[in-house]
Amino acid sequence: DQQVKQNSPSLSVQEGRISILNCDYTNSMFDYFLWYKKYPAEGPTFLISISSIKDKNEDGRFTVFLNKSAKHLSLHIVPSQPGDSAVYFCAARAGQFYFGTGTSLTVIP
Amino acid sequence: DGGITQSPKYLFRKEGQNVTLSCEQNLNHDAMYWYRQDPGQGLRLIYYSQIVNDFQKGDIAEGYSVSREKKESFPLTVTSAQKNPTAFYLCASSIRWGAYNSPLHFGNGTRLTVT
What we know:
The complex is a heterodimer of chains A (109) and B (115). Chain A is mainly β and 109 residues long. Helix content of chain A is 0%, strand content 58%.
């Protein structure tokens, strides 16, 4: 049973525009949420995280939003750059970490 | 530079052979993890270790074994009992199990192909 879901397998965005990646979850016991970026044949790289007691966290071009009532997590990248093209995984923790299936982002120059 | 080293990057084995994947970290992290990634799927937890000399089964532990004799090392053995061993294997660590604001840090993975 997939507790963390990324329903969009892919997303294309023009350079300079906003990229919005979405993630839904089912387990209300998740206390910590994260986003990772991954290139083929490499390990995921940690991007940004948010505790369940907050609803927003920013780090440079990356902002994560948490809507606990909707059990929804999103990552905003502004402005998008071609180097942002990668697969993005959301993850959530309830003891162990649970991962979504990933969204492949393509930023078009 | 602190990090997680997985070796080798590519590994080929014949069906029926056991194979051990190496994972070493110099981050001084207590917790270590093994994940498996298959095409179109998220990362699935095989085993984890909260502290030295302790480890627990994850969601897909059948056909795998681990040891945690040293803080910095968490090798994974893929046994002949694992029905679909061909996959991309990722090792990760975190400061402590359940610690506040403690993300997973990943190695660069080992691609195992069993024929």
